[in-house]
Sequence to fold (105 residues):
Amino acid sequence: MPWSLLVIAGLLEASWAIGLKYTEGFTKLVPSVLTIAGIMASMYLLAVAVRTIPIGTAYAVWVGIGTFGTVVVGMTFLGEPVNVGRIFFLILLMVSIVGLKFSAH
Fold:
């Protein structure tokens, strides 16, 4: 269960990171409220997950999932560059996240 919560927290991190783009410096009410809610939910789930998962592992996985999701959304929907280098490093990031998960025992 803690790992599931951590994955959800990481996905929420990606969503609020993307949401920051639409807040326009927190001057837009609805995107700002949704982004702040995403931040709070993500942090809460991370805090619950670290009750049983080591903090170093949990934090690295949380950030990694958030980074991976943010980059993929940026490349897919926001016109960010897609090239061999970025794809390679995304794969490397995913391998690192999985490696941290399996080495946490």
